[in-house]
Amino acid sequence: MLNPETIEQIKGVIQAEVRGSMENEMGKLNSIFVELKKDIMDTLDSKIQEKVNEKVEEMDKHMRDLEMKDKILEGKIVKCESTITEEKKRKNLIIYGLGAHQGWKEREAAVFALFQDKIQVSCKSEDIDSIVKLDKNRDDGPILVKFTTTRKKLAILLNRKNLKGTNVYIDEDFNKEVVEKRKELKKIMKELKSEGKRQVYLRQDKLYVDGVLWSKEDEESEKEDVEMEDAATPSGGRTKNKRRRSPSDHTNGRRQRKLKTPLPLKNQAIISQFFNKGENPRARSSSTGAILGPEIAKIVDKLTAKDNEEQSEETQETAESDQVTKTISESNEHKGTGGTEEEST
Fold first, then answer.
1. Domain boundary among 28, 55, 87
2. Residue ranges under compositional bias (Basic and acidic residues) (predicted)?
3. How far is residue 133's CA from residue 19's CA, in Å, rounded to a whole number?
4. Which of 4-18, 141-155, 216-230 has the highest mean pLDDT?
5. Which domain holds residue 227?
6. Overall domain count for the chain
7. Percent above pLDDT 90 for the chain
8. Does residue 28 form part of some domain?
9. How far is CA 197 from CA 158, 248, 267, 314, in A?
10. 184, 197, 237, 244: most buried, per Cβ within 10 A?
11. What digits encode the pLDDT tens for the residues 266-297?
12. CB 149 within 8 Å of CB 91
């Protein structure tokens, strides 16, 4: 039987081992708990960040949609404002160089006298809504005339050619953008006229040359073609007479087809020259068969009929092509007019 001291020693050893084992297990559990807590926090952070990113993307997309809608609405507003401005100016004309007038009555009388005497268009008080001086700091500043009908305004505009030789000039009431563009086009118009172009005119903010709409790209392409032709011409050789292309060479963006030169009597002349060597040449008549013989006459008649048939078909094709070209040109001109008038040069 164990004595009490031995029992106490054994108990102390067992308690020490149990305590050490429990401490070890508690350490492991604590480590596992820390790792588990970290994993949970990482997972929560990832989920939260994912949700945040989704919300941010949705908000960004919503903002982009709003910005796009805002741009569309802004464009529509600008277009509506431009349309309203053009509608207000559609019945207006501006008179330059009419002279100095102190009061509105004197100014109104001068305008009516100009329309009646110079432009030779009858105009009554009910045809005009108002007459306003644009530059109040100048006595001879431009005068804005607002008509009640577009018909009367166009009648005045069509007859402004009667003002040639005077200091008075009448123009349409364009918006600021059109006015700036017309200033640039007028410089180009002067250059084209100095180059020999005669049918050059402005229609609102567009320039037409020989009835075809002018564009800067076409002009640059034409200059490049001319430079290439000049570079391809030998320095010591003869220069072929090549004319520059003008807008009249194109119809609706297409170059006109060159017509083949008809040679209706080519074959007859060759045969006649072969059988009449040494004889005096003379004009071919209806008695060719008697001169060349019946067989040769048949050949000549067949060739003549064939050439005449080809010439007739080619003439018919040319006439049809010219008619189509004319119809397209008239249609484009009618569509381009649209109630506005040309500024003739």
1. 87
2. 298-309
3. 110
4. 141-155
5. 176-233+246-255
6. 4
7. 14
8. no
9. 23, 11, 42, 32
10. 197
11. 555 555 665 555 545 444 444 444 444 566 66
12. yes
